[in-house]
Amino acid sequence: MTKTIIHTEHAPKALGPYSQAVKANGFIYTSGQLGIDPATGELQAGAIAQTEQAFKNLHAVLEEGGSSLANLVKVTVFFKDLADFAAVNEVYARFFECDFPARSAFQVAKLPLDAEIEIEAVALA
């Protein structure tokens, strides 16, 4: 059994003592991705823009690990407000052509940087 830490400059740096992702036993486990633009370090404005950026960040992390969004098997979306559910679903659907991964969605009390959305995932390596 091997464990490989995944890090890319094409996604935001971790906000704390954790890795962007870890590859282990044929899977990649990502940390939660916020809608932070890695070029500027700025959180995008609003749930739609944050969702788009979070998926771009997930793409970069998975690509660094030798995988892709097409290999996602499980996604968890954390919402500041579930009223954004329908709008986030529209953005979410643009990142997949078919065979959607399993997904859970939760409204939480607060997210880092007071973000609207955070997305974590598990993908085949």
Task: Characterize the structure shown.
It is a single chain. This protein has helices spanning 47-64, 85-94, and strands at residues 3-6, 21-24, 27-30, 72-79, 102-107, 117-124. It is of the alpha+beta class. β4, α2 and β5 form a beta-alpha-beta unit. Helix content is 22%, strand content 27%. The chain has a six-stranded mixed beta sheet, with helices on one face.
Summed up, the helix count is 2
The fraction of residues assigned to DSSP E strands is 25-35%
- The helix-and-strand class reads alpha+beta
The H/E string reads EEEHEHEE
Radius of gyration: 14 Å
The total strand number stands at 6
Topology:
Layout: E1 3-6, E2 21-24, E3 27-30, H1 47-64, E4 72-79, H2 85-94, E5 102-107, E6 117-124
Parallel strand pairs: 4-5
Antiparallel strand pairs: 1-2, 2-3, 3-6, 4-6
Helix pairs in contact: 1-2
